Amino acid sequence: MRSSEMTADDKRREPASEHIDVSVLVIGAGGAGARTAIELAERGVDDVLVLGKRNHGDAHTTWARGGINGALGTRDPEDSWAIHAADTLNEGHFVNDPNKVETVTKQMPDRLRELDEWGMDFSRTDGGDIDQRFFGAQSFRRTAFAGDHTGESMLNTLVDRAQELEIPYRENVMITKLLSDGDQLHGAAGFDMESGDLLLFNAGTVVLAAGGYAATYNRHTSRDDENNGDGPALAYAAGAELMDMEFVQFHPTGMAVDENDPEWEPWSGRLVTEAVRGEGGRLFNADGERFMERYSPDQMELDARDVVARAIAEEVANGRGTDNGGVYLDLSHRDRAFIRERLPRMYERFQKLGVDMASEPVEVAPTAHYGMGGVAVDRYGETSVDGLYAIGETMAGVHGANRLGGNSLAETVAFGAVAGEQIAQRVDGPGTVPTRLVRSVAEPHFGDLSEMADRDGEYDVMAVFTEIQDLMWNHAGILRDTETLEAGLDRLAEVRQQTKEMRVGPMTADSFEFAVDIGFMITIAESVLRGALQRTESRGAHYRRDYPEIDSDFQKNIYFEMADLGGMTSHTEPVGTPSPAVQEALDEGHELDYHQLE
Ligand SMILES: Cc1cc2nc3c(=O)[nH]c(=O)nc-3n(C[C@H](O)[C@H](O)[C@H](O)COP(=O)(O)OP(=O)(O)OC[C@H]3O[C@@H](n4cnc5c(N)ncnc54)[C@H](O)[C@@H]3O)c2cc1C
C-alpha cells in the first residue's frame, strides 16, 4: 500500500517482527518468576518461557539482604506457622487476606528446606541447621539468612535449579501490554530492548512476576530501573483489579543527600541499615534535639518503622530538618573499633563518601521501600482475567497495611510454588492471540510504540519521570491529607498531558524504557492517590493527618479497576476471617518485639 492510500487508522498499525508461541509466559525473572517456572517444569510443563528486562540472574531480588521468614523453629521450637501468620496479620493491621497469609506461612518451612537442598548457602548453627534470627518485628526468631546476601543467594540457587531443568529464558525483553479481551488472557506484546524488534507472545497463561512500585517515589531503596509498577499497571490495563495501593512502606532511614552533588546523588534513599539504631544510633533534628523523646519516650529510636518514619517526616515538615530534607543519625558516642566490627559495610560506605561515623552523624530521611498493594488475586495467584496470574511483589494481599521484614522473599517462593502447581493442572498447549485482537489491540499498540520512539516533543523523558516521583513524594508520601492528595490528582492530570509531548528516542535507548515506565507510573500514582484519599483513617503505613486514628469500620480492602469507558473506579470489600488455627495463635497474644533490629 502506498502511504498516500493509508487511512489514519492504518498508519497506527504495525505488525510484530517476531511471534513466539508458548504455553506459559512468565514475565519476570526474580524470585517469584523463577520459582513458578521451576514448579511448572517439575510438574512436566516444559513449554514455559521466562523473560526479564535484564540479564539472566539480575533482578531486584538480589538486593534483599536481611533474610527470609519461615517457622522452622531452629532457635525457638515453640514457633509455628500459625504464630507466623498471627504476627503477619498483626503487623498488617488486619487488612491482609488471611487465606494468603496462611498459604505463605504454611508453605515456608518446606520452601526453606527445598532451597537448602538446592544448594542455597544459608548461615548455619553450630549443629549445622539453618540458622534463624529476629528481623524487624517478630515474636520468635524465624528469619533464615545467607550472611548479608540472602536475596542474591536465593536467586542464584533458583537460577541454577532452573538451568538444571533446562527452563528457557529470554533476556532484555520489556513487556508493554497484555493481550486480553478483558475476561480472557491470550498473550502479551513487547519489544527486544537490544534490537528494538517488536514481539508478540501467543500464550494461554501469563504469570506476572514483575516486581513492585516503590520506585514511583523520588526517594526509594530500589534500583531506578526496577519497581516502577510495571506489573500492577500491566494487569490493570488488561482488566484485572488492583488492591490496597495506598499502603506503601517507608523505611525510616534512607540516605538524605545533596541531589545536586554527582558523587552523592546516586546514594539518595539507599538504606542505612536499622542495625545503626539497633547498635545505639540516636536521631537528632537540625536544632540538635533528640526528637524521639516527643514521639515515643519509651521506645525512642527503636520503635516500629512507621512510627520512626513519621516522626522524622514531621520534623522535616515543621522546618526542623537538614538542608537535604533529613535529620541526623549519630553513633559517634560509640568507639571506632565497635562501629567497624558491628557495621563494617555502613562504616566503609560513609568513609568512602568522606563521612566518619565514629566522629560525626550521617544524614537520613524516610525512603519508599515496598508497596504492600498490587494486583488482586485469588488463593492461587490468579486474577479476575482468566489465565492471568500475578505473584511476588506484583500481587496484593499478604502484607496488609504493613509488611514484616523477611516476608516478601517468602511470598515469592511460596506463591511461585502454589501458582505453578495450579497452572500445571490447566495448561493444554500454546495459546493463540485471536486475529481480531492482533488487529484491534496488538498492532495499534505496536504502532503507538513506534510513534512514541519518533516523538520529538517539548518535554525530556527523565524530567517527566522525576516529576512523577516528586509528585508521589509530595502528595502521597508519609503525611497525607485531603488537600494534598486532591492537589496530587490535579497535578497528575497535568503531567499526563506532558507525556504526550515527550522527546523519547529509539526503542533500544534507556529513554524509551523510561518513557514506557512513565505510562505505568501514571496508573500507579492515580491508584495510590485515590486509595489514600478514600481511606479516611490511619492504619499501618498509611497515615492521614486529618484522620489520625484507625477506624474499625475501615477494616476493608480497596479495589481499583478500569471503568468500561476508561477512567478508574473503586469499591471496598471487607477482609476475610482467619482460620481457627490462626485465630487461636492470635488469641494467645504473642507480642511483636520491635527491639530486635538486625
Ligand atoms: C533494598 C531492599 C532490601 C530488601 N530486603 C529484603 C529482605 O531482606 N527480605 C525480604 O523478604 N524482602 C526484602 N526486600 C523485598 C524483596 O527483595 C522483594 O519484594 C522481592 O525480591 C521481589 O521479588 P519478585 O520476584 O516479586 O520481583 P523482582 O525481583 O523485582 O523481579 C521482577 C522481574 O520482573 C522483570 N520485569 C519488570 N517489569 C518488566 C516488564 N515490563 N517486562 C519484562 N520484565 C519485567 C524484571 O526485569 C525482573 O526480572 C527488599 C527490598 C529492597 C528494595
From TrEMBL:
GO terms for biological process: small molecule metabolic process. Residues 467-560 form the Fumarate reductase/succinate dehydrogenase flavoprotein-like C-terminal domain. It comes from the Archaea. InterPro entries: FAD-dep_OxRdtase_2_FAD-bd, FAD/NAD-bd_sf, Fum_R/Succ_DH_flav-like_C_sf, Fum_Rdtase/Succ_DH_flav-like_C, SdhA/FrdA/AprA, Succ_DH/fumarate_Rdtase_cat_sf. The keyword Membrane does not apply. It comes from Halovenus rubra. The active site is at R305 (proton acceptor). Keywords: Flavoprotein, Oxidoreductase. Coiled coil: none annotated. This is L-aspartate oxidase. GO terms for molecular function: oxidoreductase activity. Residues 24-409 form the FAD-dependent oxidoreductase 2 FAD-binding domain.
